[in-house]
Amino acid sequence: MKERFIKSTIILIIGGGITKILGMVIRICMTRLAGLEGISLYMLVNPTFSLFMTMSQFSLPNSVAKVVAEDKYNNKKLVLGAIPLTLILNVMLIIIIILAAPFITTYLLKDPRCYLPILAIALVLPFDAISSVIRGYFFGKQKMLPHVLSNILEQIVRLILILWITPSLMKTSVTNAVTWFIMVNVFSESLSITILYFFLPKKIKIEKEDFIPQKEEVKDLLQISIPTTTGRLISSLSYFLEPIILTLCLTKAGYKNEFITTEYGVITGYALPMLALPNFFTGAISSALLPVLTKEYARKNKKELKKKLQLGIFFSLLIGIPVTILLVTIPTLFLKRIYHTSHGANYLRILAPIFLLSYIEAPLGTLLQATNRASKLMVYNLCGVILKTMTLFLTCFLKIGLYPLVIALSANILLTTFLHLREAKKILT
């Protein structure tokens, strides 16, 4: 079991690394092909895209993975029964997007060019949702290769289609090019579904009855997916409110809008992406850890449950500690090498030790999901978001520049990690 967990983690890290590199190449190509105007329009639509993708997936990769790992149902019926549910949800989301697109375009994004890209989001959702359900099956079986291979080929197809079609669309309008950037996901996700299908057991015979959701299976899936998705939506709302609160309060405190925008850009554009680098690895570790912890919890083996969690935390710290030391001691070097600037070094020195706690929060959160405590995970995240928002609002009037955001982020991490640790102690003792 230990060897399988380590193997799964290594596959996810290597495959994820290749996917990240391809993603960076795609972003560079998009920028060069569509120019500043095109990429700015895409980034304007992207938060809406991310929000609907979160709702579309409904945290089914995690919930399907957990229930499959428990091995108490017929996995074929579980996975196929989840597909009609996710399609019903996505039909509802498609209707919402079509009806809300004019409002979002006119009153929220305030750019009429966003209309077609937002409508394109509706077409992507069902393909992404089906892909997520099938991925959850492979996660639950601790078979990471299909997921990794489909992700890599998906990115390659995206890159080819963007390079091939975008130049022609740019001759018509930048809006059409940006719409294509979103539409291309339909083709890449379709390929992903096809690849995942070929990795499914060959002896499976699919019948119409298999697509009928079973009450107990649906109940188990929703116990995880509802609180997990709610937690993610709460976090998204928090990030949405963050710049609004900062701008409102700091301007009242006497700061100029230009200063607020610049410093906020330094924190969110330079410091936070560097602090989030280990999250890529801890996320891979957590994905591999979920089915392992689920199996041990189902067997009521607390000793092995504790060992596997400790192993997950060890791997997270193995990556997190060196990164933290480097960002505390020589932040300027990394900022100059990556961004060609020294702005943000002071923020990095303060936040890096605090973010070390967030790297162990990921495996702790996985423990809560594996032990049927997803609702508590949601509550703890909500507590963190409330504390962060209150801290941000109150400290903005201390006239300490953008450090209220640093304090608020730190308070959020400290509280949520403490709550996760306290719950983990209850589970393991």
UniProtKB/TrEMBL annotation:
| Subcellular location as annotated | Cell membrane
Keywords annotated in UniProt: Cell membrane, Membrane, Transmembrane, Transmembrane helix
Write down the membrane topology. Multi-pass membrane protein
> Can you tell which superkingdom this protein's organism belongs to?
Bacteria
Q: Which Pfam families match?
A: Polysacc_synt
Name a single GO cellular component: plasma membrane
Membrane spanning segments where?
12-33, 39-58, 78-104, 116-138, 145-165, 177-200, 237-255, 267-290, 311-335, 347-365, 400-421
The record, for InterPro entries, names: PG_synth_SpoVB, Poly_Biosynth_Transport, Polysacc_synth
In its UniProt entry, what is this protein called?
A: Oligosaccharide flippase family protein
State the organism named in the record. Answer: Candidatus Faecenecus gallistercoris
